[in-house]
Amino acid sequence: MSTWSEPQLDSRFVVVDGLRLHYKRAGHGPALVLLHGSASSLQHFDRAADLLSESFDVIRPDLPGFGLTGPRTDRDYRIPAYAATVTGFLEALAVPRYAVAGTSLGGNIAWNLALDHPERLTGLVLVNATGYPEKELPTGMRLARNPLLRPVLRRVMPRGAIERNLRSNVGPRSTVVDDAMVDRAHQLMSRPGNRSAFVDLCNTDQPDRSAQLPRIAVPTLVLRSAGIDGQHFTRDIPGAEELVHPHGGHLLPEEEPQWVADAIAQFLGSTTDTPTH
To answer: Could you give the CA distance from residue 219 to residue 231 in angstroms, rounded to a whole number?
Structure first.
């Protein structure tokens, strides 16, 4: 059985602003950064990353509060703090130009990077991204906002609750949620500080920058599952392209890795520039 709470053979670490970030890097070609969502980890992109590494230098961190990176000491889980950390992470790796693809929370961070550092981005891919105030919160995040449950969830996150949350976030035809996925999510959430970091994130008041989306000038692809609500990126980002998966759920890169990888590779084929690795 895999021990997900420990580093793997291909694990790497770099210190950014006092935080020891865990990441993986594979492949050759233009740099492509993959950002996972909340209550997740870089393993969210395992299969898609394997496919994309044939054409790209694929870099994927465990975002602060999750995976082997773990919690921030300042407990700052605002999107601007995440974006600043990702920017510092890529500076530490000496990657000046890159495309970025993010799922959910990772997508929110990605489009904030496009607003703040358009000169660094060669392309932007938003996969069931968040960032609009009317976006419905997943069940797990709503529970973490309950003042009665907050102290309980900081101490324990039952495996059964994690399994139910995963199953609620995939499409009706998906069979991707198995014992290995649940074990991975449970082990990583059970690492010291990660449960509290998730509760802190869920209770953080996030700034609403959605009115600034029309300022984004980076070539943008929106990948969306048909049943996902609160998404207006193709309406608001000039020139954005959109592909809609008819029956995928919120965890699209795990449910449909080939579809996601093919879409990203085809889109970035004409937008990325010189190799960095």
So the answer is: 18
User: Which contacts of 109-114 are long-range, i.e. CB under 8 A and separated by 24 or more positions?
Assistant: 109/35, 109/63, 109/79, 109/82, 109/83, 110/35, 111/213, 111/216, 111/233, 111/237, 112/79, 112/80, 112/82, 112/83, 112/209, 113/83, 113/86, 113/87, 114/216, 114/218, 114/220
3-state secondary structure of 112: helix
DSSP 246: S
Average pLDDT, the chain: 93
**Region class of 128: left (phi > 0), else alpha (psi between -120 and 50), else beta:** left
Q: Is 232 helix (H, G, I), strand (E, B) or coil?
A: coil
Q: Which two tokens stand for residue 100?
A: 């970025």
Count of other CB atoms within 10 angstroms of residue 202: 21
Report percent pLDDT > 70 for the chain.
Answer: 96
Q: What pLDDT is stored for residue 271 in this prediction?
A: 58
Of all residues in the chain, the percent with pLDDT exceeding 90 is 84
